[in-house]
Design brief:
disordered N terminus; mainly alpha
């Protein structure tokens, strides 16, 4: 059965809506970028600095909610419905599988050995795993309400899926860039920035696809939350730190880049499964 038409609101001009959203999200985020990068003394003394990263990840959501309500006087179009559970399962399985393939290959080859004692200690406290995972999903939801809840569907009213993936990845990259240049996120080198940008193209393709195909923002939030937890925290805990492993793993690793590009190409090929997006004038 052919997928249904995606339910994006038609009463607004997507170009204006996207422009206002981007101005607002970058304006709000700039406050957090300053606090995190400059670490002003008042932020350290008051404890504001401790929560700046959390606030930053929710700036896209706040900007999106304000923008959508300003233009529509409602919050339709984000994809707050549950959707089909098979897409939830896919969103969970992908990061778990990618992490296992990535770190497992390092364990087998000896690039970064497996640490059984660390694994046993971690699984001995399963509630800690659940809590950390839930926190990761909550933080990721702040980003996804903005990037995939508003930006991606609105771009879908203007252009093809190929350009949705490219444009959304570039904007998402620009949002990360200030902290990268400050050396707070990554080491700030041209190499790490280039690796991150290329990885983000593949990742954005996957995130946009699962959001549009499922019709639910929660699939993108789950995918993002599980990805951050599995790739950045879960598997690294019981993997030995080595120079070769550091170059291989993480947001800036060569293995992450290759896997992200491969996944991106796969879901770009599957773009025929996506619903048709409504145009501003009401056509398909």
């Amino acid at each position: 059965m052919a997928p249904a038409t995606a339910g994006a609101p038609l009463a607004t001009d997507p170009k204006r809506l996207i422009a206002v959203y981007l101005v607002l999200v970058f304006a709000l985020s700039s406050i957090c970028w300053y606090l995190i990068a400059a670490k002003p003394q008042f932020a350290v003394d008051t404890g504001i600095l401790r929560y700046s990263a959390i606030v930053l990840m929710w700036c896209p959501a706040v900007a999106a909610l304000v923008t959508r309500y300003y233009f529509q006087r409602n919050l339709d179009g984000f994809g707050f419905g549950i959707g089909e559970l098979k897409w939830w399962l896919l969103a969970i399985v992908i990061p778990i599988g990618v992490g296992l393939a990535m770190f497992g290959s390092a364990w087998i080859t000896g690039i970064a050995p497996f640490l059984p004692d660390k694994a046993a200690a971690m699984f001995a406290v399963p509630q800690a795993i659940v809590i950390a995972l839930c926190v990761s999903i909550v933080l990721a939801t702040g980003e996804e309400i903005g990037w995939r809840g508003l930006l991606v569907p609105e771009l879908g009213r203007l252009t093809t899926f190929t350009w949705i993936a490219i444009v959304s990845s570039f904007i998402w990259f620009c949002w990360h860039l200030p902290l990268m240049l400050a050396g707070v996120y990554g080491n700030g080198s041209a190499y790490s920035i280039a690796m991150f940008f290329l990885s983000l193209i593949g990742g954005s393709t996957l995130f946009a696809w699962i959001r549009l195909r499922s019709g639910s923002i929660w699939t993108a939030a789950l995918l993002h939350g599980f990805w951050n937890y599995c790739i950045q925290k879960f598997y690294p805990v019981f993997t030995a730190t080595t120079e070769a492993g550091t170059a291989m793993f993480g947001e800036f690793g060569w293995c992450t880049l290759l896997i992200s590009i491969g996944i991106g190409l796969l879901f770009w090929h599957l773009r025929y499964m996506l619903p048709k997006m409504p145009r501003p004038e009401g056509g398909l």
